[in-house]
Amino acid sequence: MRATLLIVDDHTAFRRSARRVLQAEGFEVVGEADNGEAALEAVARLRPDVLLLDVRLPGIDGIEVAARLAGEPVRVVLTASREAVDFGDRILTSPAAGFLHKDELSAASLARVAGVTR
After folding, report:
1. Total-model pTM
2. Which residue among 27, 31, 40, 111 has its CA within the 20 to 30 Å range from the CA of 20?
3. d(Cα 73, Cα 47) in Å, to the nearest integer?
4. Of the options 3.40.1000.10, 3.40.50.2300, 3.40.50.920, 3.10.180.10, the CATH number for the domain spanning 4-113
5. Splitting the chain (118 residues) into consecutive groups of 10 residues, what average pLDDT does each group show?
């Protein structure tokens, strides 16, 4: 069974390209969202195994979404086009499984950071 994935990013082009790449490489993409509030609703409704979550979102940012999902069975992987160090210790202290720079996105790297098989 393939790992299910929800992609959350406020840039439509990134969501589309991430969906194409990650589906082609073994993930089952069950949905997309473009802001933090929609991400929380989609996780509750779709119950994905993995949440690829942009750090910088309108409204509730990705780090706050990760905090609100602490204790849920979804593996949160934060992503950004900036380096993790640019966010200070916020990423390190978040309950997310890890961080993946957008330039390094692949199914293999996402599976490794999330700790899932695809």
Report:
1. 0.94
2. 40
3. 8
4. 3.40.50.2300
5. 93 97 96 98 98 96 97 96 86 93 96 91
Kind of pairing between the strands at 4-8 and 28-33: parallel
The DSSP element (H or E) to which 15 belongs, if any, is: helix 12-24
CA–CA distance, 105 with 69 (Å, rounded to integer)? 22
Contacts of 59 (CB under 8 A, 6+ apart): 35, 36, 37
- Within 8 A by CB and 6+ apart from 79, the residues are 9, 52, 53, 54, 55, 62, 99, 100, 101, 102, 105
